[in-house]
Design a protein that fits this description.
Shape: globular
CATH superfamily: Nucleoside phosphorylase domain
Largest sheet: 5 strands, mixed, barrel
CATH class: Alpha Beta
Order of helices and strands: HEEEEHHEEHEHEHEH
Strand order of the largest sheet: 5-8-7-6-9
Strand content: 15-25%
Number of helices: 7
């Protein structure tokens, strides 16, 4: 059956925020620092929003923020929930569905990811050009409401070309490299084995992670333009070809170190909206 609009949550956002935003941002593990780059006008905890699940993972604050970047109103999901936490795909994508119902037209999604392609280093920012979906379930499985989007949405341009060009221009102006590649999403929560990293590389992935893909599928189904950005927080292999030991603490530390550059890209992309 199709998913009904969360009218109670929509009323809460309107009452507490007093204005709507056309741009939404989803911040991944350890990447909440973008909120410091905007004028925050309001905040709502996920636990206050009917039907919005709470994250159980450190590094995800679990708040909806309304703010301004220049003259542009932006709504920020400071943290997300994941399939590996035991949530259904309906829960995983509840925030994006709420933003779509609230009128958001442009969505910027971020994540912490493992670097797969050769030359990828911890701290790199990767612009997502495409994705590979290896989650065990598609978030659009079930009945479809044609008023929300088509039964079989086109995914040939899941990540908007104009937004990607805008992000690359911002990075050039800021003086750092913004890599571009394919993100592979799967369920987690265990980090990948060396064999799984090699498989990901063989089938065309440049980075792997445990989020983003379900949100992007729903966003595109709802007609949103999407920009995706990965912060490379760990890598498959070291310079000598040996497998790397990974931990969530290392991921958070690397994300924090790259947060300034990530925030500058998001801010620059949003500011260029005003032109």
């Amino acid at each position: 059956m199709s998913i009904m609009r969360n009218e109670a949550a929509l009323r809460l956002l309107d009452e507490r925020f007093g204005m709507r935003a056309k741009v939404g941002v989803v911040l991944g593990s350890g990447l909440g620092g973008f909120a410091d780059e905007m004028e925050v006008l309001g905040s709502i905890g996920y636990d206050e929003v009917p039907g919005l699940p709470r994250s159980t993972v450190s590094g995800h604050a679990g708040r909806l923020l309304l703010g301004k970047v220049g003259d542009t109103a932006v709504v920020v999901m400071q943290g997300r929930v994941h399939y590996y936490e035991g949530y259904s795909m309906k829960d995983v994508t509840a925030g994006v569905r709420l933003l779509a119902d609230w009128g958001v037209e442009e969505l910027i999604v971020t994540n912490a990811a493992g670097g797969v392609s050769e030359g990828m280093s911890v701290g790199d920012l990767m612009l997502i050009s495409d994705h590979i979906n290896l989650f065990p379930e598609n978030p659009l499985r079930g009945g479809n409401d044609e008023s929300e989007g088509p039964r079989f949405p086109d995914m040939s341009m899941a990540y908007d070309k104009c937004l990607r060009e805008r992000a690359k221009e911002v990075a050039r102006c800021e003086g750092f490299e913004l890599r571009e590649g394919v993100y592979l999403g799967w369920s987690g929560p265990s980090f990948e084995t060396p064999a799984e990293y090699r498989m990901a590389r063989v089938i065309g992935a440049d980075a792997v992670g445990m989020s983003t893909v379900p949100e992007v599928i729903v966003a595109r189904h709802r007609g949103m333009r999407v920009l995706g950005l990965s912060t490379i927080t760990n890598c498959a292999f070291g310079s000598g070809g040996e497998a790397q030991v990974n931990s969530h603490e290392d991921v958070q530390r690397a994300a924090a170190e790259a947060a300034g550059r990530l925030a500058s890209v998001i801010k620059g992309v949003v500011e260029k909206n005003e032109g």
